[in-house]
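Next comes a concrete protein, fold included:
___
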Amino acid sequence: MNNNDPLKLFYQEKQERINAQGQDAPLKAAADEFTRLSLKSGYSYNFSWLGRPVIQYPQDMAAMQEIIWQVKPRLIVETGVAHGGSAIFHASMLELIGGPGKVLAIDIDVRAHNRPLIEGHPMSRRLELLEGDSTGPAAASRARALAAEAAGPVMAVLDSCHSHGHVLEELELYSPLVTPGSYLVVFDGLVEQFPEESVAAGRPWGAGDNPLTATREFLKTHPEFEADRDIENKLLITAAPEGWLKRKGGSSNGV
């Protein structure tokens, strides 16, 4: 490397810093404590994106925009809609990139008070809402059709029902659509790490039965994917531990 090249030096220092953070036990412990306390306080419910509530950690949104800029997907398949903030966020990133990028957002129940606000949003032109079971044949068929039409990079983001069985079924259904060099992101694996703080009463998931356990099982039989731990080491605070899955192959500009 040319040590006089300031850009190369910057990126080298960045990578060294990320590697060091991944080994920094006190820093990681502090991040874990913040995550635990923030789950109890409902911290991730405090934010919005372009006017729609987005139930995410800002750190994860920062990582998502880096990935979207890097991959430049023609299609993002997202399971779980809620207030639509994440779908609008993804659509707005595709708008900034330009081209024909589209979001397919799937939810078993698109609430009546949310639908008109999502469909009336300026970014809705890049968004298709599909109401139905994300593991059902209609959703899977529509996703496959749009992926074929996209003729370019495809991403998938899983954030619907967080039970092990449901997430594993989503992983099997949507992973074949993800193109080499792109990402399959599995949210809310932190249920495994902080079950008491992150599991609402009556929900059918918890320790041993959640997105992280499903992701670990999926990776045992899908060597074409690997967890991008650089993203996790960079963020430190994330709702997707071990869930930033990159499909091997393709080009990468670094995230």
